[in-house]
């Protein structure tokens, strides 16, 4: 069922007035912005020329994206060798993208994924980027999300919550911050990954309270004068870190420790007037991945301001323009999605562009998704705080609530 308020494509002729004006002072930054807008303009011009001849020009290339994901899960190409320490991430990006597109892999394939992720579990608790690698919070987050998406009893048992909790304590600092691995760097990603894993696995409240004592205060110190969050106190505001900051605070029910109104203003300014997508930092280029990192931050922040128990009547950013940018500028004809026109497809951008579209479609009302273009473009919803399906969150919380240890039935 869809809302009667139909989303329409913008008038691209009038839109040209919103292109960047360098005020006759050309810089490297202004030239890159104009180059990007020119590439986006070609996509929008093609849509105008083809929309009445080829209805598929306004459609999500669902079948091609499914084929791309199926191929990538079974056999990564050679250029992914540089991500050998991020193999749980590759799995997560693939599984989450598939869920958004509402298709699943054969159970035998998913069982093999569980077996592989079990081999990535470190003896010290948590998960490494591959078999035999040191435990690290980032692949731990990706592995936990992946196993919760699969959602079988064997998948849950592969997590070993007790040893994971010990790992989380091993990377916790006295001020409530978290290192990404033992003796590693400290930034807000670590705090978010730790909080997300603990909440998704329903870590008992007394343990969680001890684990995250002081964490909300430390995260709040990462907010900058601009309103967004940096990776650590006194660093530049950045879209990815900003999501980690507000999502972590929201999961701890302590979002009021940051300046929520300044945060909302900063995130809203990240939507590009002409392109429709989001940039990740001030004076940077549009990037499809921020469709989620910034796009999810906005409704999360709105919810913390009005109360999570109240329905959100309107999302403050232009949800139509965001979907427009992804549909027309970020799809590859042979499957997969991209950062911006001219870039190659990859799993990371496929996951976060689709996740951003899902947030845009479903953030206003769970009953009336706001879908641009063909109604078949509707994606399945994602939980904005975890970026896994809401049903996976509910199932994981139930399982770990009923099982104090992973090895019990």
UniProtKB/TrEMBL annotation:
Domain Prenyltransferase alpha-alpha toroid, residue spans: 60-388
Cite a single Pfam family from the UniProt record.
Prenyltrans
Q: Cofactor comment in the record? A: Binds 1 zinc ion per subunit.
Please name the InterPro entries in this protein's record.
FTB (IPR026872), PGGT1B-like (IPR045089), Prenyltrans (IPR001330), Terpenoid_cyclase/PrenylTrfase (IPR008930)
| UniProt-recorded Gene Ontology molecular function terms | protein farnesyltransferase activity; zinc ion binding
Q: Which UniProt keywords apply?
A: Lipid metabolism, Metal-binding, Phosphoprotein, Prenyltransferase, Repeat, Transferase, Zinc
Catalytic activity of the protein:
L-cysteinyl-[protein] + (2E,6E)-farnesyl diphosphate = S-(2E,6E)-farnesyl-L-cysteinyl-[protein] + diphosphate
Class of this enzyme:
transferase
What's the Enzyme Commission number for this chain? Answer: 2.5.1.58
Q: Which GO terms describe its biological process?
A: lipid metabolic process; prenylation
Its cofactor is:
Zn(2+)
Q: Name one GO cellular component term.
A: protein farnesyltransferase complex
Q: What domain of life is recorded for the organism?
A: Eukaryota
Methyltransferase as a keyword of this entry, yes or no, is: no
Q: How does it assemble?
A: Heterodimer of an alpha and a beta subunit.
Q: What does this protein do?
A: Catalyzes the transfer of a farnesyl moiety from farnesyl diphosphate to a cysteine at the fourth position from the C-terminus of several proteins. The beta subunit is responsible for peptide-binding.
Q: Which family does it belong to?
A: Belongs to the protein prenyltransferase subunit beta family.
Protein name, as recorded? Protein farnesyltransferase subunit beta
This protein's species is Drosophila busckii
Lineage at the top is: Eukaryota, Metazoa, Ecdysozoa, Arthropoda, Hexapoda
């Amino acid at each position: 069922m869809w809302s009667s308020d139909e989303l329409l494509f913008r008038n691209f002729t009038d839109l040209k007035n919103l292109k960047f004006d360098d005020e006759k002072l050309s810089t490297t930054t202004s030239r890159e912005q104009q180059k990007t807008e020119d590439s986006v303009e070609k996509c929008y011009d093609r849509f105008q020329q083809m929309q009445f001849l080829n209805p598929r020009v306004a459609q999500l290339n669902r079948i091609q994206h499914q084929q791309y994901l199926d191929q990538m899960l079974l056999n990564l190409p050679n250029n992914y060798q540089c991500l050998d320490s991020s193999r749980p991430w590759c799995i997560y990006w693939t599984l989450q993208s598939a869920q958004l597109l509402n298709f699943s892999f054969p159970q035998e394939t998913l069982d093999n994924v569980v077996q592989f992720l079990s081999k990535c579990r470190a003896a010290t608790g948590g998960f490494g980027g591959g078999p035999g690698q040191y435990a690290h919070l980032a692949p731990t987050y990706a592995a936990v999300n992946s196993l919760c998406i699969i959602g079988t009893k064997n998948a849950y048992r592969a997590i070993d919550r007790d040893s994971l909790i010990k790992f989380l304590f091993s990377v916790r600092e006295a001020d409530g911050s978290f290192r990404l691995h033992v003796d590693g760097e400290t930034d807000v990603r670590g705090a978010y990954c730790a909080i997300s894993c603990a909440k998704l696995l329903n870590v008992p409240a007394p343990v969680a309270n001890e684990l995250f004592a002081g964490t909300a205060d430390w995260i709040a110190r990462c907010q900058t004068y601009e309103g967004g969050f940096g990776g650590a106190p006194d660093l530049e505001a950045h879209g990815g870190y900003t999501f980690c900051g507000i999502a972590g605070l929201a999961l701890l029910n302590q979002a009021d420790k940051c300046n929520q109104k300044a945060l909302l203003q900063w995130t809203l300014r990240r939507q590009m007037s002409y392109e429709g997508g989001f940039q990740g930092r001030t004076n940077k280029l549009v990037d499809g991945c921020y469709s989620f990192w910034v796009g999810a931050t906005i409704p999360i922040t709105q919810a913390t301001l009005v109360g999570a128990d109240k329905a959100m009547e309107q999302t403050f950013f232009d949800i139509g323009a965001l979907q427009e940018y992804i549909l027309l500028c970020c799809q590859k004809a042979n499957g997969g999605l991209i950062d911006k026109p001219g870039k190659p497809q990859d799993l990371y951008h496929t996951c976060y562009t689709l996740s951003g579209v899902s947030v845009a479609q479903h953030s206003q009302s769970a009953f009336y998704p706001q879908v641009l273009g063909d109604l078949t473009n509707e994606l399945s919803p994602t939980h904005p705080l975890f970026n896994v399906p809401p049903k996976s969150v509910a199932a994981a919380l139930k399982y770990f609530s009923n099982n104090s240890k992973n090895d019990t039935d």
